[in-house]
Design goal:
Elements: H1 2-36, H2 38-49, E1 50-55, E2 62-63, E3 69-81, H3 88-106, H4 110-122, E4 128-134, H5 136-143, E5 157-166, H6 174-177, H7 191-195, H8 197-200, E6 205-211, E7 217-219, E8 233-236, H9 240-257, E9 261-268, E10 274-282, E11 288-289, H10 294-297, H11 307-316, E12 325-327, E13 332-335, E14 338-341, E15 350-352, H12 353-358, H13 362-373, H14 377-386, H15 417-422, H16 431-442, E16 447-448, E17 453-458, E18 461-465, E19 470-472, H17 478-493, E20 508-515, E21 529-537, E22 544-551, H18 561-564, H19 566-579, H20 594-608, H21 622-631, E23 635-639, E24 644-647, E25 660-665
Parallel strand pairs: 2-8, 23-25
Antiparallel strand pairs: 1-6, 2-3, 3-4, 3-5, 6-7, 8-17, 9-10, 9-22, 10-11, 12-15, 13-14, 16-19, 17-18, 20-21, 21-22, 24-25
Helix pairs in contact: 3-4, 9-19, 11-13, 11-17
Protein name: PASTA domain-containing protein
GO molecular function: carboxypeptidase activity; penicillin binding
GO biological process, one term: cell wall organization
Length: about 675
């Protein structure tokens, strides 16, 4: 028995000894963790539970030249609620008043919010979404609600801030201004946003957050660790009014002709400042929106607008003058085994070189250029290179289309290349590149680089300015310039642009109608065209140049440049002219107008009389008649313009206030 007790005791000693040794090992390990490896483990724990999150800086604003906002960063706030961190006492005391305030802000019953908060408390929800996309004022208001004003720990409020890019003009100029890359927050590549991202993006800030349940993160402090620095502002050359005019003029025509896509550019002649760029593409349901920046990025065969460049080369080299007679045959002529046609049935016969451009004769221009340069095509190509038509303009906006000007040895070169180029085929240009050349014609031969930006600013302090850049100080002789400008005016007066002529203001330019996708097998059954008009206004002292290009208008409604794109050009010119008259002074302000005097003499005695019967207003100016009759209590409807030719209620009938009368004007 004693031996057995001794064995048990020995085993107890062994067990106790092992436990003692284990305790010593644990103690040593604890000391090692605490003092030797402690810093490493603390850093690891901190890393797993807290993290610095990047706070994107507010991007700088993009402005139109008049200070109108084109793009701006707006802070938005999401509010969440940590139902666990709030003490029972605070939750109980503040739940009802908090729910009432929430009810007032979001127009839902207070009982609804009480149920939401209590359910979150019961489920230990630490990341309950309360409100999304709040503006700054609403965020401040909610931050001071009962319970929330106690802060993130006592009040459980979690605030998540982000910036949203907004375009105050909506879809107008959206592609030019640029927007965020799809599925890439904070990444901008296109338009002003992409071109000047280095100025706009600013510097990022930092905010420390702590990991909570379900992999969610909650801010540790109310304030940021590192405050973000806002980006610089970009002041563009865009005129908001002209942009609106261009957008809606293009949209109206695109809808009428059911076109695939189109673009408009308006440029200030002397400075090269781009005042408007509109780009519209059709969706599958027939609506239009700013799909791509066609004006800058799409190079295509320009068609007849290129005839101006061809004619200028021949004039400059003295190969012809404007009176040189060209035989256009009967509208069909063979060049190197291929026929070229004119649009007029039966052709134009023998006409002058100037007339050939006025009526846009394909045969006329092809004949002029082929006869002048077939033995030395490089001489013709050299002019195009001097005018930089073979190079990109070099703007900062991403995606500028590459021009194609083939010459001998190029894969597109053949015997037919030269006559084809003469009327705008077998080469490619973007609308912006074409306009830059027409603008040089308007600018007395000085070619300036199109410019989209005036300056970069930071808090109203100038950071960088962008001045007019001359790329060619004289594209041709004064004689050639004078001749080509006369022809461009005559194109509108009596040539292909005659439907656009207005005696009230002058325009100069060239229509263009080019086949597209003509190499496809179905072209004869489904013909597609590109309509264009490029020019400037007013014709005598040009202020603005403009190009309109519309792709694939419905051939059932029309496809010629004078019909499809010319009216857009005219509408833009008219609206700019009427809303921003180019004449700054009015002569003979005090000079009497006999017509106005006569109208006044007719109106004044009638306006002073007391009427019980409907007066006779026939022969009166429309607006005077309206004023007189409305003052008598009648409701007036007018049809037409001018003076009153007929009135629906004959004079002499009893006057009844509120009665409607219709005036027909002529």
């Amino acid at each position: 028995m004693a031996i057995e007790e001794k064995n048990i005791l020995n085993r107890l000693y062994i067990i106790a000894g092992c436990m003692f040794i284990f305790a010593i090992a644990v103690a040593i390990k604890l000391v090692n963790i605490q003092f030797v490896e402690g810093e490493q483990y603390r850093e690891l724990a901190l890393k797993n539970t807290t993290r610095n999150f990047t706070i994107p800086a507010n991007r700088g604003n993009v402005y139109a030249e008049d200070g109108s906002l084109l793009a701006t960063s707006v802070p938005k706030y999401d509010i969440r609620f940590d139902a666990v961190t709030v003490s029972s006492e605070n939750f109980k005391n503040n739940m009802v008043p908090l729910s009432k305030e929430m009810s007032k802000m979001f127009n839902r019953p207070a009982s609804y919010y009480q149920n939401v908060f209590r359910k979150a408390r019961a489920n230990k929800n630490r990341y309950l979404l309360i409100a999304r996309n709040l503006g700054y004022s609403d965020y401040i208001k909610m931050k001071n609600f009962p319970l929330f004003k106690l802060g993130p720990y006592k009040g459980g409020i979690i605030v998540e801030q982000r910036t949203v890019r907004e375009h105050p003009l909506g879809k107008v100029a959206e592609r030019l201004v640029g927007n965020q890359k799809n599925n890439s927050p904070g990444v901008y590549e296109v338009g002003f946003e992409g071109a000047f991202d280095e100025y706009l993006r600013g510097k990022e800030g930092k905010r420390l957050k702590q990991k909570i349940a379900r992999g969610q993160w909650k801010p540790v402090f109310d304030e940021n660790e590192v405050e973000p620095q806002d980006g610089y502002d970009v002041i563009s050359t865009i005129n908001a009014n002209i942009q609106d005019i261009a957008h809606h003029a293009l949209l109206k025509q695109m809808e009428h002709y059911e076109a695939e896509h189109g673009s408009v550019i308006v440029m200030e002649v002397k400075t090269g400042e781009i005042k408007a760029v509109a780009n519209l593409g059709r969706t599958s349901n027939g609506n239009y929106y700013e799909k791509l920046n066609y004006a800058v990025g799409e190079s295509h065969e320009p068609g007849s607008t290129f005839k101006v460049m061809a004619m200028m080369a021949a004039l400059e080299d003295k190969k012809i003058d404007t009176t040189t007679v060209v035989d256009t045959k009967e509208g069909r002529k063979r060049f190197y085994g291929r026929y070229i046609h004119d649009s007029k049935h039966g052709g134009y016969g023998e006409i002058s070189a100037a007339k050939a451009l006025e009526v846009s004769s394909n045969i006329g221009l092809a004949t002029i250029i082929d006869e002048a340069y077939s033995e030395n095509p490089e001489q013709f190509i050299d002019h195009l290179k001097e005018w930089r038509l073979d190079k990109k303009i070099g703007i900062k906006i991403k995606g500028e289309g590459k021009p194609v000007i083939p010459g001998p040895g190029h894969e597109l070169w053949s015997k037919n290349a030269l006559p084809s180029m003469a009327y705008g085929y077998n080469l490619r240009l973007t609308p912006l590149q074409t306009l830059a050349f027409y603008n040089a014609i308007a600018n007395d031969g000085v070619m300036v680089k199109p410019r989209f930006i005036k300056e970069i600013r930071a808090w109203n302090h100038e950071v960088e300015t962008f001045d007019t850049e001359v790329v060619n100080d004289q594209i041709c002789s004064e004689e050639t310039l004078h001749e080509i400008r006369d022809i461009l005016k005559n194109i509108v007066r009596r040539g292909t642009g005659k439907p656009l002529y207005s005696k009230y203001f002058s325009m100069a330019g060239k229509t263009g109608t080019a086949r597209t996708e003509y190499w496809m097998d179905d072209w004869d059954k489904d013909r597609r065209y590109i309509s264009s008009f490029s020019g400037y206004f007013p014709a005598e002292s040009p202020k603005y140049s403009c190009i309109v290009v519309i792709h694939k208008p419905s051939t059932k409604k029309g496809y010629y440049g004078a019909d499809v794109t010319g009216p857009v050009f005219k509408r833009i010119a008219q609206k700019i002219f009427t809303e921003s008259p180019l004449v700054a002074e009015i002569a003979n302000v005090d000079e009497e107008d006999p017509i106005l005097e006569k109208d006044y003499e007719t109106y004044y005695p009638k306006a002073q009389a007391h009427y019980t019967k409907v007066p006779n207003v026939k022969g009166m100016a429309g607006m005077d008649a309206v004023s007189l009759l409305e003052n008598l209590g009648l409701k007036v409807q007018i049809v037409g313009n001018g003076t009153v030719a007929n009135q629906s209620i004959e004079s002499g009938e009893a006057l009844k206030r509120g009665q409607q009368i219709t005036l027909k004007l002529s």
